[in-house]
Every structure is written in C-alpha cells, then in structure tokens.
Input
Amino acid sequence: MLPFKLVYSEKYFLPIGEHVFRADKYRLIRERLLGEHIADESDFLTPQPASESDITLVHSPHYVSKLMEGALSAREELQMEIPYSPQVVDAFMLHTGGSILAAEHALQDGLCINIGGGFHHAFPEHGEGFCMINDFAVAIRVLQNRGRIRRAMTVDCDVHQGNGTAAIFGGAKQHSAMLPSSSPATLGSRSGVSMNQSPAEDVFTISLHQEHNYPYTKPPSSIDVNLPDGCVDADYLAWLDNALSSGLRQFDPELICYVAGADPFCEDQLGGLNLTMEGLKQRDELVFRVARARGIPVMVTYAGGYANHVEDTVAIHCNTVVAAAEVYKATASPR
Ligand SMILES: [Zn+2]
Output
C-alpha cells in the first residue's frame, strides 16, 4: 500500500476518436500500476465531478454556459483541437473533481496524485490545446474558497508552457531578468529565465518548457524557464532545481500543484526536448524531495504525453508514482 492516494475514474477517458492525445492512457496507467504491484486497489480514490459553481471560480460564466449548452463556435472548437461533445465536458468535469479531491488529500497526507488532469492550456474564457477546463487552477480556487489554503504554487513541467494557468493567475509583466545564479554554461544564450516581478499575491506560477513550441504566445508566469530545443537531463534538472529554489525564496506556498507532463521525453511526437525516461523520474524525485524537505503538500496532475509508443507515456506516468513512493516512504529526512 502506498503512503498516499491515487485519484482515478474509468470515466477519465475522453471520447475524442483517433487522436495524438491517447485518452486511453489513464486506464493503461492504472492497469500498469496494478499489474506491476506498484499500487493496489485500496490506493485508489474515485472522484466526483466538479460543480458549475466550482469551475466558475476560474472560468467565466459565459464560457461555462457555452460548454454546458454545446454552444461553442466552430472556431472555438477548432482552437480546442478536440471534438466537442457533452461526454467530453463530463470527462473534464470529472478530471477537475479529481484535482480538487487530490488537493484535499495532499493537505491530509502530504502528497496525492490525480491520474489525470493537468489541462494547463484552458483560459478563463476559452479552451485550447486539448484543454477545456483548467482543473488544477479550479482546485486551487476551490481550496482557497473553502479556507483550506491561502497560497499555492504551480510547478509546470509539461514540455508546453502553461499559458492558461499564467493567464489565470499571472499579472502584467514588469520586466525580465536572468536569475542571478542561473547560467549553466552548457545552455545556449537564447534560453533563459524570465522573472515576473509582480506575481499574483496568492498563486505563484513556475513553468519549465521548450521555448520554440506551442503556445507561440506565452503569457508571463511568475517564473518562465524557456528551454532550448534538445535540452538534456542534466541541464533540465539544473534549471528545475534553480527555478524551485528561486520560487521558494520568493514565495511560501501551502500547496504545490505539480504538473508532471510526460512530453519532455526524447521520443515525444509534440515535444522537442531530449529527456530520458530516467531523467524524467529524477525530475519527479527532485520536486518531491524539495517539497517534502520543506513540509509543503504536493498534488500531482499528469498533463501531456504523446510518445511514439503509448507504453512509454504510460511508463513515464507510472514512474511518477514510483518516484513519489521512494521519496515519501522514507521514514526520516536524510541528515
Ligand atoms: Zn504538453
């Protein structure tokens, strides 16, 4: 039995037909976790769908009513890049309920993983890039609304920038500067870190992503790390370590929402970074170790993953659970 819970529903499946986004990955992850005895049945929690009043804490009532009534324009549906149906809306509401449940259990157990969610390209007024509802932004607002937390940090390690999250929580960008301690010599001069000097008061957003990739307009996060094409494990981990230290020097969150995208993988169809499967597991361990050492609860969502072979995406997502088990099973912090 794991020292934390996994949130999953068979209804996480999104009926979107033949698609680069393999919506059956959630079921395959659960089957692999059970098949390899990484988890057992008792580790899983079943979520309830989020309510309309939950999602309107982030999304505009106008957008929400269009989702509920099937009134998106053809252009809006095109921008979403997945076909609209009421069943797809139901699935997104369930992923969002899963993120709310995971956030609550993270506060209780120190960590909780939603085997879904991470839809970071959803904006208050529209969806895009396979994302209809920004599930973890909603979870943050719901927990704030319940008085459970005041301050949260998002740590987005999907290969694509978290533009929706940045738009939801970000403020106007004042100016950019390189982090004082951040210039690994191996990185090209085009890559760099942008610091938004006036982050939202209650939510601090960090995004590590490939600079030359979707989304081509990147609203400022509190910290954006724009990685060069082909970035390898060691450089990636150095940038992540740096961004986490910098973020946690500036901001003291009561919850971290970790967006553990599988698409920085070297064989991803929609990504141009060069991380190995082992490097991605080390990435997860780094986030968990830093959070655990500081006593900050972490809720995890899975976001993207479009490897040439779906079993690689599934293995990367399962490794996130393995990494968490290794870090959170340790009974005492290392001296
Ligand atoms: Zn992605």
User: Anything to note?
Assistant: The longest helix spans residues 86-109. Strands lie at 5-7, 44-45, 111-114, 152-156, 192-195, 203-210, 223-227, 255-259, 298-301. The longest strand covers residues 203-210. Residues 158-160, 261, 263, 303-304 surround zinc ion (CB under 6 Å).
